[in-house]
Amino acid sequence: MIKFWSYQREYKKYKINIISSIKKSLSKGNIFFGNELKTLEKSFVKKYKSKYGIAVGSGTDALLISLKALDIKKNDEIITAANTAIPTIAAIINSGAKPILVDIDEDYLIDCNKIEKVISPKTKAIIPVHLYGQACNMDKLTKIGRKYKIEIIEDCAQAQGAKFKNKFVGTFGKFGCFSFYPTKILGAYGDGGFILTNDFNYYKKIKRIRFYGIETVDKKNKFKDEYYSNENGLNSRLDEIQAGILNFKLKYVEKFIKRRIYLAKIYLKELQNTSLKLPYNRKFSKHVYHLFTVYHPRKNQIVNKLYKKKIQTRVIYPYPIHKMKAYKKLKFDRKKLLKSEIKSKGIFSLPLYPELKKSEVLKICKIVKEILEKV
Ligand SMILES: Cc1ncc(COP(=O)(O)O)c(C=O)c1O
User: Fold this and answer.
1) Is residue 84 lining ligand 1, measured as CB closer than 6 Å?
2) Helix, strand, coil proportions of the chain in percent (round to 5)?
3) Buried b (16+ CB within 10 A) or exposed e, 183-210
């Protein structure tokens, strides 16, 4: 079976380094808030050319904490894409706000031309989602943000290292939110997330929210580093074991991305001239191919046949947000979200991760082409 993804190939390859980074973290005497965390925050900020960075417990928390930092309240509205991952919406709802869904464009990204129509006096932020590794049009989004004085929180969970006009995603908005979920571009061996910001006051605030509201930055604060809460926060710590593993892997992240792009190019070459709608690198952007997502109206047949040929695929995501029970009560107008529905019925992703072999990609392409001739 060619698995859609498994951490085990990576683990096999880097086992010595991963085990030694765990041992190193444990030998230092801190489970939380030690040197590994400090190093990770410093290196991540440097790599992605931002000013400040805060590691948190997950990508979902990164979004929730960013929303909390903006003092989002009940009845506020946050705009995002109808085809996003559930956690984008969970974060919005858990902040107290209402998600406002916008349909997607041909490339599965929020349709920037439809955003202004849903902006209201209650709109506080837009969360563009750089889905599958492809950057949203940040020119259009920042322009809308400035025009209506609403903040942009970038959901970069699937697009670490992607660029728009040569600038890294996560550095355009007020906050850039990342996920270290194991399947991601930079995956931990557990949960983890990260927030980038260029704003010192928000940096301080996010650090407080991450840790029960305790002040850890502002030297002038009377209660700095004391067990005293300045504002209601939560617990979203990234432990030293995960930070240590991430520090090791961060050194290789460019290599991982290059390998993804290399394998994606093989898929693109081999599958051109087939009836599949293939992903592509949009003008002005750098796609990091977190996923290799294709579209075909006869998706179910193809996916079933691939499975019989021992090739695992995934549908990311099979239901747009407004079609799920948890969110139906928000009464989204599905007539305005039709593209997300159509696309969700025909998309599927082929295996793509750095440890996948070129021979496996070629094999997958050969089988896909054989299947396509008969469906
Ligand atoms: C687009 C998107 N946003 C947010 C998240 C949430 O990240 P996490 O699983 O680390 O909470 C994910 C990951 O599943 C994601 O793909």
Assistant:
1) yes
2) 45, 15, 40
3) bbbbbbbebbbbbbbbeeebbbbbbbbb
- Whether residue 317 is preceded by a cis peptide bond, meaning omega within 30 degrees of 0, is yes
Per-residue pLDDT of the chain (375 residues; tens, 9 = 90+): 999 999 999 999 999 999 999 999 999 999 999 999 999 999 999 999 999 999 999 999 999 999 999 999 999 999 999 999 999 999 999 999 999 999 999 999 999 999 999 999 999 999 999 999 999 999 999 999 999 999 999 999 999 999 999 999 999 999 999 999 999 999 999 999 999 999 999 999 999 999 999 999 999 999 999 999 999 999 999 999 999 999 999 999 999 999 999 999 999 999 999 999 999 999 999 999 999 999 999 999 999 999 999 999 999 999 999 999 999 999 999 999 999 999 999 999 999 999 999 999 999 999 999 999 999
- Residue to mutate (ligand 1; options 127, 181, 183, 242; most atoms within 8 A of CB): 181
What is the rounded CA–CA span in Å between residue 184 and residue 289?
10
* 253-271 and 358-374 helices, crossing angle to 10°: 30
- pTM score: 0.98
CA distance linking residue 317 with residue 195, whole number of Å = 24
> CA 38, CA 131: separation in Å to the nearest integer?
29
Q: Are 345 and 299 in contact (CB under 8 A)?
A: yes
| Centre of ligand 1 from the C-alpha of residue 49, in Å | 22
The span from the CA of 83 to the CA of 89, in Å, is 10
3-state secondary structure of 161: coil
Q: What is the CA radius of gyration of the chain?
A: 21
What's the CA-to-centroid distance between 187 and ligand 1, angstroms? 12
Residue pair 147/176 in contact (Cβ under 8 Å)? The answer is: no
Determine which helix (DSSP H) or strand (DSSP E) holds 175, and give its type and residue range. strand 175-179
Tell me the CA end-to-end span of the chain in Å, nearest whole number.
Answer: 22
Q: What angle do CA 119, 123, 125 make, to 5 degrees?
A: 110
Q: Which two tokens stand for residue 61?
A: 């928390």
Q: Which domains does the chain have, with CATH numbers?
A: 8-250 (3.40.640.10), 253-374 (3.90.1150.10)
Mutate to test the pocket of ligand 1, among 56, 127, 155, 179 (most ligand atoms within 8 A of CB): 179
